[in-house]
Amino acid sequence: MKYVDEYRGSEEAQKFVAAIERLVTRPWNLMEICGGQTHTMIKAGIDRMLPDEVTMIHGPGCPVCVTPLELIDRALAIARRPEVIFTSFGDMLRVPGSTTDLLAVKSQGGDVRMVYSPLDAVELARRNPDRQVVFFAVGFETTAPANAMAVWQAAQEKLDNFSILTSHVLVPPAMEAILSAPDNRVQGFMAAGHVCTVMGYWEYEPLAERHQIPIVVTGFEPLDLLHGAYLTLEALEEGRSGVVNQYSRSVEREGNLPAQKLLKQVFEVCDRKWRGIGEIPDSGYKLRDELAGYDAELRFDVGELVAQESPDCIAGEILRGLKKPHECAAFGVRCTPEKPLGAPMVSSEGACAAYYQYGRHKVAS
Amino acid sequence: MCLGVPGQVMSIELDPLGMNMGEVSFAGIKKKVCLAYTPEAEVGDYVVVHVGFAISRIDEEEAQQVFQYLAEMDELGELEIPQPGEDPAPGADS
Ligand code: SF4
Q1: Domain count of chain A?
Q2: Of the residues A26, A178, A338, B78, which has the maximum number of CB atoms within 10 A of its CB?
Q3: B79 in contact with A at a CB cutoff of 8 Å?
Q4: Can you give the residue range of the structural domain that contains A264?
Q5: How far is the CA of A322 from the centre of ligand 1 (A)?
Q6: Helix-helix angle A204-211:A171-180, to 10 degrees
Q7: Could you report the per-residue pLDDT of A45-66, keeping only the tens digit for each?
């Protein structure tokens, strides 16, 4: 097994589709949380293979999409400083702030570099003691242990020219917010497999209990998604709530304990604003007070920034599953991946970009 | 963003901070990966790698689950793939 191609078989996919068709007797709304899952689902056309009764709502699980505009503006202001080497994962570079993006800052002479791992940013700090290296620490629980390790290493080595601009978000509070909203339509969740790889799924058990819904921890390949949808629909049809683990080759109930241990040493839970959704209590991480010296927001005073969202963008409704991307008037017309108006068009994991990339704008639906 | 790519651990060594680092092969392309979060991983194991960190060791037995599931349903005769252009007989489902 190589753990990739086997989960892409089209014959097996058809078998799952047939099984789902036999199972479903009435309309259901499912949400896949993670943007990576959205991408695969639209690319493979899984949402279209499913019977008409099943509506897939694309969740807010794209950290790039939910990073608040003010924070991107702050990143841009820091990246412009001459003493700074600003490092980021590739997908943040093209996210538009109020007026520009990191790539534009780079072309104007800013030292902006793409890194594959946060440890690469730490290495840059070691090699450039006369420069300030800042890493844009975005991501969900999946990415948090990597970013925590970068700060921990910098602290061990007393690297005082390294800091992170933190925009960490946590999934369970967002699910709670979606379920508690008066206009909620989600009846079952396919939870993000790699988030659960790190955190486990015990946190989802009280959530499923409280809202009487099924939550199925789901992997990322086409067959994982179909299997996840099958298990969620099976529970819905049978009137069962609770948590089921589809992605058991990677996820255990307790999650990854060494990763959680370091997370606790480096981060603490805080309220966070989600772009398109608003502030959600206890939905993010910030550095612990002892490590505040590594917080780029404290190190670089960039003043108060007031962010200006495009008035045309309905990302908020899309992220909450109230509308589909092609229902936005700007979609594919004034807003394209080349000239994005809002974040869901920028990241390939954003719902708007996935719909655009796989030709959903050409089809009137 | 939360993408994890499975790869095979080719070698493991300790870095100067005492952390497990390894070389992981992704379909032949080798990369340096931090193994601090998968202390149980051994050479030859497959791990899920995200931004340069292994976040889990893949459980071989559990990896068969999806296929076992289909096989079981197949045995129960529950999985007939409708042929294209052929409408299922009315009432055949119920
Ligand atoms: S298509 Fe563009 S403008 Fe419309 S919601 Fe998506 S990102 Fe915003």
Answers
A1: 3
A2: A178
A3: yes
A4: 69-170+255-299
A5: 13
A6: 10
A7: 999 999 999 999 988 888 888 8
